[in-house]
Amino acid sequence: MGAMRGSGLWMAGVLFCSMGALHNPAPKYTAYFFLSDGCPMCQGYAGTMNRLAQEYEGQGVRFVGIFPNFYVTDSAIASFRHDFDIHFELKKDSGFVLTERFKASITPEVFLTDANDHVVYGGMIDNAYYQPGKRRGTTSIFYLKNALDNLLSNRPVGLAWSQPIGCVIVKD
Fold first, then answer.
1. CA dist., res. 53 & res. 136, Å (int)
2. Alpha-carbon distance 59 to 139, whole Å?
3. How far is CA 120 from CA 24, 28, 59, 88, 98, in A?
4. CATH number of the domain that 66 lies in?
5. How far are the Cα atoms of 90, 136, 169 from residue 63, in angstroms, in the given order?
6. How far apart are CA 144 and CA 136, in angstroms?
7. DSSP letter string, the chain
8. What is the pLDDT of residue 24?
9. pLDDT of residue 16
10. In the chain, how many domains are there?
């Protein structure tokens, strides 16, 4: 049983398009995490980022890790993925295109965009750290999670910006 060119085929509740590709609707929101493979805070947030991706990807949220430096290699990104069991897309920004677009200056720093590619939240993932490398005993404010919960429930984002804490993005 095959699909004709230009048509789709429903099998087991999944739409397969004519070229055999799985139909993925455009995300409602995209979370861009700016990361550095050598930043201890980025490493410390790996579990949190994975949990957020696992919780929200099925609700139309895409997660992307961005490595904004000219020296990062594909093998370093692959090692980061493997070492910290990352389950979402990771990509280089060695030309600083996304870094400049979002005005990212710190890793880890997150920017949440809507379907129109407008930033609706930017800053810290949560308040787990109170200064670079210094972790709180208990995380009490979940900035990105709160923004996602509000937006996915058709409520205003709430806090749209928090000052990021972490490793400085070096561009030279």
1. 23
2. 24
3. 23, 12, 17, 21, 16
4. 3.40.30.10
5. 9, 25, 20
6. 17
7. --PPTT--EEETTEEE-TTSPBP-PPPSEEEEEE--TT-HHHHHTHHHHHHHHHHHGGGTEEEEEEE--SS--HHHHHHHHHHTT--SEEEE-TT-HHHHHHT--EESEEEEEETTS-EEEEE-S-SSEEETTEE-SS----HHHHHHHHHHTTS--S--B----SEEPP--
8. 64
9. 36
10. 1
Q: Taking the CB of residue 13, how many other CB atoms lie within 10 A of it?
A: 5
31 within domain boundaries: yes
Q: Write the pLDDT tens digit of every residue in 44-94.
A: 999 999 999 999 999 999 999 999 988 899 999 999 999 999 999 999 998
15, pLDDT greater than 60: no
Residue 2 lies in a domain: no
Grade residue 6 by pLDDT with cuts at 50, 70 and 90: very low
Residues 6+ apart with CB under 8 A from 142: 126
Both structure tokens of 46: 């790996």
Q: Is residue 8 part of a domain?
A: no
**pLDDT score recorded for residue 171:** 86
Give the range of the structural domain holding residue 48, as residue numbers without chain letter: 26-168
Give ∠ CA 90-93-99 in degrees, rounded to 5: 110
